[in-house]
Amino acid sequence: MGNDRQGEQILFRRCPYALMQTPGVIDACHLYGAYKRGVLPNGRGLNAETAFFVEAMQTLEALESEAESWYLKESSRDDKGH
Questions:
Q1: What is the pLDDT of residue 59?
Q2: E-assigned strand segments in the chain
Q3: Is 14 exposed, middle or buried (0-12, 13-18, 19+ CB in 10 A)?
Q4: Taking the model in full, what pTM does it have?
Q5: DSSP state for residue 42 in the 8-state scheme
Q6: Phi, psi (5° rounding) for residue 17?
Q7: Does the structure show a pLDDT above 70 at 35?
Q8: In the 8-state DSSP scheme, what is residue 34?
Q9: How far from each other are the two terminal CA atoms of the chain, in whole angstroms?
Q10: Contact between residue 2 and residue 30 where contact means Cβ atoms under 8 Å apart
Q11: How many CB atoms lie within 10 A of CB 58?
């Protein structure tokens, strides 16, 4: 996977609703919500899959940041137009 950044850019341009229909994405989003509230995996389950957990949280954090940037940009554009 030498071209991860290109894959990330393609992911950012996809419809989020379509992605949300994927069971793994739904689970990861639930995990991210818990992560944001400070709830981390316990000694069983995902704690044994730390690479997956870290990668999922990093990816979702990047998507959240991208969405926030877009929203701020659009809000600023709307404020200037009115």
A1: 86
A2: none
A3: exposed
A4: 0.59
A5: -
A6: -65, -40
A7: yes
A8: H
A9: 45
A10: no
A11: 10
